[in-house]
Amino acid sequence: MAFVILKDLAYQYPSSTGLVLENISLQIQEGEFVSIIGPNGAGKSTLCYALAGFVPHFFKGEISGEVEVDGRKSSESTLDEWALNVGLAFQNPFNQISGAKYTVFEEIAFGLENIGVPRDEMKKRVEDAMSLTGISDLADRSPYSLSGGQQQRVALTSILVMRPRLLVLDEPTSQMDPVGTREVFGVVRKMAEEGMTVVMVEHKVEWIANFADRVIALKDGQILIEGKPNEVLTSDLLIENGFGISRYTSAAREARKRGLWKKEKLPVTLDEAVEGFKS
Amino acid sequence: MFENIKKEFSTRTLVLIPIAIAINIAIGELVVRLKLPVYLDSIGTVLVGAIAGPWAGALTGGLANLIWGLFNPFAAPFFYVAAAIGLMAGLAGKRGAFQNETPRWVSVVVGAVFVFSLTLFILAFINASTDETGYTSYPSMGQLFSQYIVAFIAAILIGAAIGYFLLQKGGYAGMWGLITGVIAAIISAPTAAYVFGGVTGAGTDLLVAAFRASGGGILASVLAQGSVSDPFDKMLSFMVVWLIVRSLPARFTSR
Amino acid sequence: MNAFSMYAARESGLHSLHPLTKILMTLLLVAAGLALPGNWTGYFIVVFIIFPLAFWGRVFLNLLSTTWKVSLPFAISVILIQSFFWGEGTPIFEIGVLSPKWEGAMFAAVSMGKIILVMSGFLLFSMTTRPDTLMITLKQAGVPSSIAYIIVTTLQIVPSFQRKALTILDAQRSRGLETEGNLYVRARAFIPIILPLVLGSLMEVEERAIAIESRGFNSGKKETSLIEIPDTPLQKVIRRVILFGIFAFIVFGVLWRL
C-alpha cells in the first residue's frame, strides 16, 4: 500500500470564497521523491499544509476527502501526533528560527529537546544532521546573523534532525545560490534513498529533472498533469498553462521547429540538451 | 473555564506574545522619538487581549513589565497594572469593541461624558479643604456647578468634539480604553505613592508636584495625575488597536 | 550575542555559579538591605558587598554606569519633589514661596539607597546570567515551558523590532512623510509608521507558529535540554543556608518594626 494517500481532497480557507484545493487524488510510495510545480496561487503551499496536518487542524476551514500517511488519517489524528511523523520546512527562513536559541547548534537541537531526546543522543543527531547539510562550521553563530541561504539550510537541518518519515519542503532553496541548491537537492535525494518520503515544491525545473522521481503540476488547486520529470517538464500542457519551463526545453522546442532537434524527447537539463544537439 | 483559558494559549498566542511585547517597546520608543506627549506603550498588550482573549492579554502585560524591568527596574512593580490593561482589552474584545463600528453620536456622548467627569473630578480635588484634624471635605456638586458653569459647558463641548473627530466610529473601543485608563490610574496610585513616593522620573512627575502644591497628599496627587493622563493614553491605545484589528484578515480575529 | 539583554559574556567565578544560587544571593542582599535597621544600610550593602561581587564578575564598570544611568533621573526627581514639598522643616534656602527642606532631601536620599540596592542587585544578576540558562533553571524549578519560551524569545526579537521600526520611519520619511514640526504633524506621522510594523509582524505569527509546531513544540513529551547547567554539592548546601538567611531577615524585619 502507498505510504501517502490523498483521496478526493478539497479544501477552502475560512472566510474565503472558492476552493484552494479541489479533487486532489494522489499516491506516493515510501522513499519516493516527488516534486510539485505550479504558478502562484495554484495551491502548492496549501497542499504542503494539508500533508503536514496544518490544514485543517491549524487553519480550520472546510475540508473534504482524506489525507492518509502510513495508514493513519490526519482527520483522526491531532496536529501534535502528526508532526512527529511529518516534517515541514517552508520558504521564509527568518520565520522558522525559533527565537528561543542563541546558536545554530542549539537552534537545531530545539525540536529534539521538545520531544525529549536524551542529551548525548541529541548532540550526536545534531552533529550528524549538520554535517549532512554542510553547515557544521556555523554551529556557534547566532541564527539571526546568517544570510538567507544559510538560514534556509538551518531550517532544513532543523527538520531533518527530527527524522520525519514524510518530509514536506515548500521552496526550501529560494534564497540559495546554485551551489547551495545543488547540495540541498543532493541531500534530499540521499534521504529518499534511505527511505524518507519527500514532497518538495520547487521552481528550479532543471534540478527537479536531475533528482526527483516524479513531478506533479498543480494549477488552480487541481492536478494538471503528473508523471516522470522529463515527461511532465517538457509537456505542451505546461506551456499552454503558463508554467515556467527550462531554458533548454525552450531552446530545443525552437530548434525542433527549424528541424535542428531530431530526438523525440525534449531536454530539461544542460546535459540532456548537449547530448541531444550532439546527435 | 480552564478549557477556555487553555484554548486562549494556543501556539499562535504563545508566538504572538513576544511580538506584542516587542511592539510595546518599539512603539514606546517611537513615541519618544516623535516627541508625542503620550506613552502608547501598551498597544501590543491591548492587541493580544483583542485577538487572543483576556488571560492572554493579562499575561502579556504582566510579562512585558517584568521583562522591561530587567532594564528599567521602575517598570517591574507596575506589572499588575499592565496585566489589568491586557485583561480589560480582552473583555472589550469579547464584547466586540474592536470589531464593530460605533454610530458617531454614541462616540460624541462617550467623549462628552468623559471630559465632563474628568473636569468634575479635578475641580472637586482643587477645591477640597483639609481642616486641622486632617479631615478632608469636598465641595458639593451644586456648589461646583454654580461656581464653574462655564468650565463645565466647555468640557462637554470639548468632549463632544473629541468624540466626533477623534473617536469617530471607534466609540466603543475608545470607551473601553477610557474605563481601562481610570482603572489603571486607581490601581497604580498606591504603588507609585508608597513604593516610589509619587515619583517615577517621567515628565508626569511635574503634574504630581502641581497637585501636591495645591494641597493634596502623596496618594491623592498621584491618583489625580493618573486620572488625567492614563484614560487619554489608554483611549488612544485602544483606538489604534481598533484600527489595526479592522485592517486584519478575518481569520485572525475569528476565534 | 545580539539579544535584548543585559548579559555581559565574561569568564568569571560569578558567571559560572548556578543561576539559582545567584538569584537567591540577590534576594538575600535585598532582604538584608530592607530588613536591617539604619538609614544607610542600603548604600552600605551596595558599596561593600555588591561592588566587590561585580569586581569578581568582571562587570564593575558596566554595573556602575548602568545603575547610574537608570537611577539618575529618578534621583533628581525624588530629591527635588521631596525637598520642595516637605511641609514643615529646616529650609535649605528660601526664595519667595520656594523653600526646600533638609528633612525632605534626607528622606529622599534614604529612600534612594533602598532603590539603588534593589536595582544594582538585579542588574548584577542579569549581567552575569545567560537568559537561556536562567530559563532552563526556572523550567526545572517548575515554571511552565511556554512562559520560558515567551521570555527568551522576547529578549531575542526586541532588537530586530527596534531596527524594523527605524527602517519604516526612514522609509516613510523618504516618501515625504513629515516627522518634524508641530504636534499635529508628528501625531499624523504616527499611524503610517506603526500600521505597517504591526500588520507585517502579525502576518509572521502564523508561520512562526507553524514552524515550531513542526518541531514538536506541543508534543506533550517530557522535555530535555541540550545545555547542562553546572552545579556543585557545595552550592546546593549554600542555597539552603541562603534560603534560611532570607527567611531570617524577613522575620527579623517584621519583628523589629512591631
Assign the structural class of chain C, choosing from mainly alpha, mainly beta, alpha/beta, alpha+beta, or little secondary structure.
mainly alpha
Work out the number of β strands of chain B: 2
Overall form of chain C: flat
Subunit organisation of the chains: heterotrimer
Helix count of chain C, per DSSP? 9
Biggest sheet features of chain C: none
Q: What is the SS-derived class of chain B?
A: mainly alpha
Helix content of chain C: over 70%
Main β-sheet, spatial strand arrangement of chain B: 1-2
Give the N-to-C terminal Cα separation of chain B.
16 Å
Return residue spans of chain C where pLDDT drops below 50 for at least 5 consecutive residues. none
Computed CA radius of gyration of chain B, to the nearest angstrom: 19 Å
Task: Give an overview of the whole structure.
- The complex is a heterotrimer of chains A (279), B (255) and C (258).
- Chain A is of the alpha/beta class.
- Chain A folds into 2 domains: 4-245, P-loop containing nucleotide triphosphate hydrolases (Rossmann fold, 3-Layer(aba) Sandwich); 246-279, no CATH class.
- Chain A has 12 helices and 10 strands.
- Chain A has helices spanning 44-51, 54-57, 79-85, 104-114, 119-133, 148-160, 178-193, 205-211, 229-233, 236-240, 247-257, 270-278; strands at residues 4-12, 21-28, 33-37, 62-69, 72-73, 86-89, 166-170, 197-201, 214-219, 222-227.
- Chain A is globular and about 65 Å long.
- The model of chain A has no long low-confidence stretch (mean pLDDT 93).
- In chain B, 73% of the residues lie in helices and 2% in strands.
- Chain B has a single domain (2-102, 169-253), classed as Arp2/3 complex 21 kDa subunit ARPC3 (Orthogonal Bundle), CATH 1.10.1760.
- Chain B has a two-stranded antiparallel ribbon.
- Chain B starts with a helix and ends with a helix.
- Chain B is globular.
- With 255 residues, chain B is mainly alpha-helical.
- Chain B has 12 helices and 2 strands; from the N terminus they run ααααααββαααααα.
- In chain C, α2 runs antiparallel to α5, α3 runs parallel beside α5 and α7 packs across α8.
- Chain C has helices at residues 13-16, 19-35, 41-56, 60-84, 102-128, 131-140, 145-174, 183-214, 233-257.
- Helices cover 72% and strands 0% of the residues of chain C.
- Chain C folds into 2 domains: 13-129 and 231-257, no CATH class; 144-214, no CATH class.
- Chains in contact: A-B, A-C, B-C.
- Chains B and C meet through α2, α4, α10 and α11 of B and α4, α5, α7 and α8 of C.
